[in-house]
Amino acid sequence: MALSDPRFDKWAEVQINYSLGVQPGDKVAILGGATAEPLLRALARETLRAGGHPVLLPSLDGSLLDLLQLGSDDQVIWLSPVERFVREEADCVVTISAESNSRAMTGLDPARQQLHRNARAGLTATFRDRASAGQVRWSLAAYPTDSAAQDAGMSTDEYAAFLFNACKLDRDDPAAAWRELHVEQQRLINWLTPRSQVRIEGPDTDLTLSVQNRLWINSDGTRNFPSGEVFTGPIEDSANGYVRFSYPVITGGRQIEDIRLRFENGVVVEASAARNDEYLQSMLNSDEGARRLGEFAFGTNFDITRFTGSILLDEKIGGTVHMALGGGYPDTLSTNRSAIHWDMICDLRQGGRVTVDGEPFLVDGRFLI
User: Fold this and answer.
1) I need a surface site. Which of 12, 60, 200, 298 has the fewest CB within 10 A?
2) E strands along the chain, which residues?
3) Is 155 part of a structural domain of the chain?
4) Please, where are the H alpha helices in the chain?
């Protein structure tokens, strides 16, 4: 994207003022790949206009790969002051995903990634606790890189237009559009809140779980950008049955395909993947919480109509559900803790359904309430 693209100024205005609500004096950490320089600079400028203190932290392509390939164990687990500042001190954190090669770590030993991830589990938990307590506001967005466009099977310009539309940046007042979605999602949450038993049925899927007395979160473009979901943390020992996920999981530089899980009393007791099964098994063995669900959610963004390979977008596809193995969010009252958080999607738009306490809620991708 061109350095002077005026759409990034509009993007930054929405993300800094609506998503993060930056206030005078806020310390705002701005992270992202150097590929996203036009947006990172726009975010810093908008932070200055809002009276905040921008802390620009761009990353170079391949720097993490260098660490994991060349670093000793001590170097891999070392926590820098910058990492601590972002997780423990910043008032606002905005992260822009801008990988130039989403498969860069494909050949890396998964144990190296697990070592790096586990060393940061404490910081991750601290950050989630701070967010739950309202001590830090965060927002995550995707940048239209050539790599992301290739993963989605689009040209870069086509993908950029798709992304801007999903973020409602094609509207005259994007913030107003997100507030309208908030109202609709709150209607779903109000219906779900007093209910407890969820059943998901679809191709090779029949899974039940409980959300009794858990809190549903209205994800309305504040933390994820784009967003469009309502999510909660299932009761940790409640998941029973089996599920086949419709789309690959792309994480850690790998594409894990045709994931199938079977749960007993909340724990994954059987798991398989048609591709990169070894990596799936290694992640499930990361820690005790990795075999339990930390999140269950409904996608509500009907501007996202197709799988792109970016979980930030794909989990929001209107008419789908997704669930995450691993760490849950404290503000949902989830108590599951893990170094991983793996989102996986069930597309229910053709031949799937969700019933809640026996009442149809989502059928063939349409909300019925």
Assistant:
1) 60
2) 27-33, 53-59, 92-97, 137-142, 197-202, 205-210, 217-219, 224-225, 229-232, 240-244, 249-251, 254-256, 260-264, 267-272, 293-299, 320-326, 341-347, 353-356, 359-363, 366-367
3) no
4) 7-14, 37-49, 63-70, 73-77, 81-84, 110-119, 121-132, 146-152, 156-166, 174-192, 277-284, 311-314
Q: Average pLDDT for residues 119-127, to the nearest whole number?
A: 92
Using CA atoms of 280, 285, 287, 292 in order, give the dihedral in degrees to the nearest 10: 60
Question: What mean pLDDT, rounded, does the chain reach?
Answer: 94
pLDDT given for residue 199 in this prediction? 98
Indicate yes or no: pTM above 0.85. Answer: yes
Of 90, 82, 78, 80, residue with least CA distance to 57: 82
Residues 183 and 327 grouped into a single domain: yes
pLDDT reported for residue 106: 78
- Beta-bridged to residue 354, according to DSSP, are 200, 362
* Main-chain dihedrals φ then ψ at residue 130, nearest 5 degrees: -65, -40
Band of residue 107 on the pLDDT scale cut at 50, 70, 90: confident
Tell me, yes or no, whether 196 and 331 share the same domain.
yes
| pLDDT, tens only, 296-339 | 999 999 999 999 999 999 999 999 999 999 999 999 999 999 98
| CATH number of domain containing 31 | 3.40.1830.10
Q: Cβ(254)–Cβ(283) under 8 Å?
A: no
Question: Looking at the DSSP assignment, which residues form a beta bridge with residue 301?
Answer: 317
Taking CA atoms, 60 is separated from 37, 64, 67, 68, in Å, by: 11, 8, 12, 14
Q: How far apart are CA 8 and CA 350, in angstroms?
A: 36
What's phi and psi for 46, nearest 5 deg?
-70, -35
Scan for tokens 């050949």, then name that residue: 107
- Amino acid of residue 145: T
Q: Please list, in sequence order, all residues whose beta carbon lies within 8 angstroms of the beta carbon of residue 355, skipping any fewer than 6 positions away.
A: 198, 199, 201, 361
And the tokens for 248? 């690959």
Q: Is the pLDDT of residue 193 over 90?
A: yes
* Range(s) of the domain holding residue 79: 7-143
